[in-house]
Design a protein that fits this description.
alpha/beta; 45% helix; 244 residues
Length: 244
């Protein structure tokens, strides 16, 4: 089963949880230990990536360590064509559609495409939409972030992504955000989409996780929270709110 098939096989049946780990913030061995904690707590897959400090070397070393330790699917969440993970199971081939810089919309993707084809990694097309506050990824990606109360804007971007053939849509408030994507925005976007909807950024509590799930998220991602609060009980409480 491909990673895309894995995500789609759960579509409409419940909410998946993915943990995002940044290879620049810990060693491959430490990342594998964190991934095992996440697996024990019930996460479904591990994403690896970050906005800065990412290299092909630390990506591949981290991917191998996590797969050997956990057996979970490892998905590369790309930072750009300068660093590509050949050892991950798949990569989100994503367009930051509300960037003001074509580099993040299509140029980086085009630059990387021939090499990505050569290494043979599974690619999953994804529309990536930055929602306020956006944090570092919004800054690096030069995003014209969707305002938190601009529900129509979020719906329009998301549906546009699906109409252009993207397999997934991701609403991102930014790693470390003080507020997650508003539940009413999630619900509205979910109503117009037929592809899976991923939500990330600012989800640190069981309440925030449950709110995103109840609003209709197909996949919920926690990142900074996992690295800053590697307490098994806290991790399990947040993931249980997603899964149950």
């Amino acid at each position: 089963m491909t990673v895309k098939d894995f995500i789609y096989s759960n579509h409409g049946k419940g909410t998946l949880h993915m943990s995002l780990l940044d290879p620049d913030k810990q060693s491959p061995k430490e990342a594998a230990e964190l991934a095992q904690l996440c697996k024990d707590a019930g996460t479904d897959a591990i994403m690896i990536g970050g906005s800065t400090g990412i290299t092909s070397e630390n990506l591949d070393e981290t991917a191998v360590a996590i797969k050997e330790k956990t057996g979970l699917p490892v998905i590369y969440f790309p930072a750009g064509p300068h660093a590509l993970a050949s050892k991950a199971d798949a990569m989100f081939y994503m367009s930051l559609v509300n960037s003001t810089d074509l580099k993040w919309v299509i140029r980086s993707q085009a630059k990387a495409s021939l090499y990505v084809k050569k290494i043979g990694i599974e690619t999953i097309s994804m529309g990536y939409i930055i929602i306020e506050p956006g944090m570092k990824v919004g800054e690096v990606g030069k995003a014209d972030a969707v305002k938190r109360d601009d529900i129509t804007g979020a719906m329009s971007y998301a549906l546009g992504c699906e109409m252009m053939g993207m397999s997934l849509v991701y609403l991102e408030a930014g790693s470390g955000a003080d507020k997650p994507v508003p539940p009413e925005m999630i619900s509205a976007v979910k109503e117009v989409l037929s592809v899976p909807l991923i939500i990330g950024g600012g989800i640190r509590t069981p309440g925030a996780a449950k709110a995103a799930k109840d609003a209709g998220a197909d996949v919920i991602v926690t990142g900074t929270f996992v690295e800053e609060h590697p307490d098994p009980a806290i991790l399990k409480a947040v993931i249980d709110a997603v899964k149950n």
